[in-house]
């Protein structure tokens, strides 16, 4: 019979890409991870790993085994959720990962509501970018992730993750005075502030600009959308800003007519597959949804 702990190690290797990274996440030594995976290969009777430069990668058999491990772990999540339902009210610790802007705008209201309604529920928040938070979720470092997604950048469904939609938030472009076709500065010369390269938000913003026939001059990068807003207010950079950010800051700006106004980001909650019915997760989702609606 295959050892579940060793299956989890193989899954961590798949998630993090290298044995060193998997060992770090599991608080193991590199040699311990290597030994456990060698034992798993003996149990399986087939090669699970192969050399790839200085690292290793999963063979097709290894990939299939990880997929089956996801199904096993989802079944365990469902079992834990069923046990939790025996309690009258949600209780215990729920670890939430969320990125800066959403944390600032929505979570304080949600946490206050949860503390009032469920005093035995201990919700703990960690700041993390969406791309990192998904790995943290699958590695059981957090229990739920509050994230966003932009049009055309939603990745295919990640194995082992359930997406619960919460809201949609219009995103509009704001340019400094004198920019655009009717101004003195062509769009290609306008300085922009965007989220870090590689993020879904940055990929979306770059695509929107390129569809309008220019390559944006990205002068500043940060995931702090309040900084984006302040740069626009001071006429120092252009930015794509969600409506919720402006409402929260109490700021009114005129969006650019150079860009469509029907672009929206989606806000959603990510949970490990099988944990959707956990009473604590249901309570957290309801509180965040209520906080978003109040905004």
Report on this structure.
By secondary structure, this protein is of the alpha/beta class. The protein has three domains: 4-83, Winged helix-like DNA-binding domain superfamily/Winged helix DNA-binding domain (Arc Repressor Mutant, subunit A), CATH 1.10.10; 91-166 and 266-294, D-Maltodextrin-Binding Protein, domain 2; 169-264, D-Maltodextrin-Binding Protein, domain 2. It is 45% helix and 22% strand. The protein is built from ten helices and ten strands. The protein has helices at 4-16, 19-26, 30-44, 60-84, 100-117, 130-138, 200-211, 225-233, 243-249, 279-294, and strands at residues 49-52, 55-58, 92-98, 121-127, 144-149, 161-174, 191-194, 217-221, 239-242, 264-272. The chain has a six-stranded mixed sheet with strand order 4-3-5-10-6-9, with helices on both faces. A two-stranded antiparallel ribbon has the order 1-2. The protein is flat.
Topology at a glance:
Layout lengths: L3 H13 L2 H8 L3 H15 L4 E4 L2 E4 L1 H25 L7 E7 L1 H18 L3 E7 L2 H9 L5 E6 L11 E14 L16 E4 L5 H12 L5 E5 L3 H9 L5 E4 H7 L14 E9 L6 H16 L1
Parallel strand pairs: 3-4, 3-5, 7-8
Antiparallel strand pairs: 1-2, 5-10, 6-9, 6-10
Helix pairs in contact: 1-2, 1-3, 1-4, 2-3, 5-10
For the structure shown, list the relevant keywords.
3 domains, 295 residues, 10 helices, 10 strands, alpha/beta, flat, D-Maltodextrin-Binding Protein, domain 2, two-stranded antiparallel sheet, 45% helix, Arc Repressor Mutant, subunit A
Question: Summary?
Answer:
By secondary structure, this protein is an alpha/beta fold.
């Amino acid at each position: 019979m295959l050892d579940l702990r060793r299956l989890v190690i193989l899954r961590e290797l798949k998630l993090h890409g290298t044995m060193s990274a998997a060992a770090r996440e599991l608080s193991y030594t590199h040699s311990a991870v290597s030994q456990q995976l060698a034992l798993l290969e003996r149990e399986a009777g087939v090669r699970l790993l192969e050399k790839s430069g200085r690292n290793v990668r999963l063979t097709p058999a290894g990939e299939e085994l990880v997929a089956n491990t996801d199904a096993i772990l989802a079944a365990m999540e469902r079992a834990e959720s069923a046990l939790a339902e025996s309690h009258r009210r949600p209780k215990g610790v729920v670890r939430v990962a969320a990125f800066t802007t959403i944390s600032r705008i929505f979570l304080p209201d949600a946490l206050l509501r949860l503390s009032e309604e469920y005093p035995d529920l201990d919700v703990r928040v960690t700041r993390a970018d969406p791309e990192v938070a998904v790995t943290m979720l699958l590695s059981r470092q957090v229990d739920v992730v509050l994230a966003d997604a932009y049009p055309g950048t939603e990745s295919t469904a990640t194995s082992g993750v359930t997406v619960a939609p919460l809201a949609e938030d219009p995103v509009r472009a704001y340019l400094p005075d004198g920019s655009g076709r009717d101004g003195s500065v062509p769009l290609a010369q306008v300085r922009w502030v965007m989220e870090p390269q590689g993020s879904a938000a940055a990929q979306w913003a770059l695509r929107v600009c390129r569809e309008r026939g220019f390559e944006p001059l990205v002068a500043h990068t940060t995931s702090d959308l309040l900084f984006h807003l302040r740069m626009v207010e001071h006429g120092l950079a252009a930015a794509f800003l969600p409506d919720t950010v402006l409402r929260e800051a109490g700021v009114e700006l005129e969006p650019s007519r150079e860009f469509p106004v029907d672009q929206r980001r989606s806000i959603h909650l990510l949970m490990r597959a099988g944990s959707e019915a956990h009473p604590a997760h249901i309570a957290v989702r309801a509180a965040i949804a209520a906080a978003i609606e109040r905004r």
